[in-house]
């Protein structure tokens, strides 16, 4: 049994599935096949458990962003109360970043991206909107 060759074939299949998914194709059956084939080798394809995001640095970032917006006399951007949980704060910061970009405040918008990056959050701008994920 050539395990290294079997793993290489699974990696090739995974690459093709990812490319098809990015092209907007339905890849559900291919994913199921990949899981079944990987199961033969004892692979589970489960993401490792991630520790919850620390909300305090995100609150501090949001507070800092609000101060910068206030100094720049940008009315209405980042108005309202800050959300409570980490995911909601990140989504709020993404919406603030969008508003700043619309207002031509690219330096402040880039600062949000950079500071989230320092906290381990990667932003990805897509045609359908901005999505975030944890950096590895």
What descriptive keywords fit this protein?
136 residues; mainly alpha; two-stranded antiparallel ribbon; 5 helices
What report would you give on this structure?
This protein is mainly α and 136 residues long. It has 5 helices and 2 strands, in the order αααααββ. Strands 1-2 form a two-stranded antiparallel sheet. A hairpin with a 2-residue loop joins β1 and β2. α1 runs antiparallel to α2, α3 packs antiparallel against α5 and α4 packs antiparallel against α5. It is elongated, with a radius of gyration of 20 Å. The two termini are 33 Å apart. The relative contact order is 0.09. The model has no long low-confidence stretch (mean pLDDT 90).
- Percent range of helical residues: 55-70%
As a percent range, the share of strand residues is: 5-15%
Mean pLDDT: 90
| Main sheet makeup | 2 strands, antiparallel
């Amino acid at each position: 049994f050539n395990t290294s060759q079997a793993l290489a074939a699974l990696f090739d299949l995974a690459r093709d599935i990812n490319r098809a998914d990015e092209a907007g194709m339905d890849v559900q059956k291919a994913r199921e096949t990949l899981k079944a084939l990987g199961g033969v080798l004892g692979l589970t394809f489960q993401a490792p458990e991630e520790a919850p995001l620390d909300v305090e640095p995100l609150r501090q970032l949001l507070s800092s962003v609000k101060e910068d917006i206030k100094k720049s006399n940008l009315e209405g951007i980042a108005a309202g109360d800050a959300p409570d949980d980490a995911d909601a704060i990140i989504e709020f910061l993404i919406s603030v970043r969008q508003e700043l970009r619309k207002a031509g405040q690219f330096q402040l918008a880039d600062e949000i991206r950079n500071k989230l990056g320092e906290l381990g959050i990667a932003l990805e701008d897509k045609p359908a909107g901005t999505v975030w994920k944890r950096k590895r």
